[in-house]
TrEMBL record:
One of its GO terms (molecular function) is phosphorelay sensor kinase activity. It holds the Pfam family HisKA. This is histidine kinase. It is an enzyme of class 2 (transferase). It catalyses: ATP + protein L-histidine = ADP + protein N-phospho-L-histidine. The keyword Phosphoprotein applies. Residues 224-442 form the Histidine kinase domain. Its EC number is 2.7.13.3. PANTHER family: SENSOR HISTIDINE KINASE RCSC, TWO-COMPONENT HISTIDINE KINASE. It comes from the Bacteria.
Amino acid sequence: MYATSALSALVYGEGLWSKAQKDAVYSLTKYSMSFDEKNYAEFKEFLNIPLGDRRAREELQKEFPDEQVARQGLSEGGNHPKDISRIINAILWFKNVGYMKEAMRYWQEGDHLIESLRSRGDEIDGLISKINSGEITKNQDKVAAIVRINEIMSDVSNINTNLTFIEKSFSQTLSEASRQIGNILLNIIIGIILLLGGIAVIVVTYINKTVARVDRAKSEFVSIASHQLRTPLTTLKWYSGKLMADIGKINYEKAKEYAAELNFATEKMIDLVENILNVSRIELGKIEIVPQKIDIKQISEKVFEELSQKIKEKKLNIDKQYDEATEKMFADAKIVKIIIDNLLSNAIKYTPEGGDISLSITESYNGNNVVINVKDTGIGISKDEQVNIFSKLFRAKNAQSTGTGLGLYMTKELTEKCRGRIWFHSYENVGSSFYVILPKIFEREDIKI
């Protein structure tokens, strides 16, 4: 648990780094227009945070690092004193391992860009200081200086865009590292269940201690986690108890059945935690849209590949239709994948064995949008419940045992953040048809930095 806590502290530190960088760019932009030295002082003050973190990173990447130097750098970076030791341990433990090694590379690239940003700021200050002091007097020279300032600010804008990409990549890589470690820990926990049992007590104790530590701003998150994790935890507790009670007299087939149930409950817990974290990021405004050229057909096929086992188990008939004009679009690949995955997962979950599911991706009549349609022959949604279907934690009466109440809420929020729209038609015991319309080209200037 300490390992994941250490990675969480590092993710929080990255948030401070990112905010300081954005504030620095904002202050430099104001300085380029106001010529007010106070704005430049703010710019330098904000840069002290990533510069402090840089000193810590460089020290910790040495063969024999001085932890006191790293501690001082992280303190200058605005990190909470209680988090500093965790951040140091996370880097020292995992800096040469998998995703963490990649994250450190992104961090190093970000530090190079911060140095370029500082250099541009110094150059702008030099020009403005000459104008303010009267060293530059001729109008022609002043105009030339102002033109040069604008050119530098254009470079600053490019640096800021690149930093946004680096920050996003760093955050995603850390999340993958945390997930990877979390999966390892879950497997260890399952092994402990098979030998000793008692996992439910451990988890409940951990949740109770967490509730005692968090403030009111986190109370809803903890409430959701406790509510949604109860079912898989109960399953883990029951089957681990059966294993303990029947050990020595249980046959292979029954042991295999129990192991399958434990594995299913664990996968459900992982999916629930991932959904809860995504919802939390959306509501905290931590979801950044990074548009790029994507192949939506390729993304869809990847989703089908990941869901193939569930499709085979239920012997579902799948129909796919792709409009070639939609294969290349400019959007956030990760968000598009989440949207398609949620719609297809729901269709598979609520369609009975032998049912039909279709996915069509077409271009809108005006050619400016992409329309995603997922249709199934599942249980459908009753008319009186349809108004609430996109509400957080809402589950229809005929889906109480399987739904989490988060998937469609998250899909709607992400769709709207991408300037899109979602709607559906559904008939109980007949099936549902969900539509998502997204801009074919999501303009970069639409993104709020």
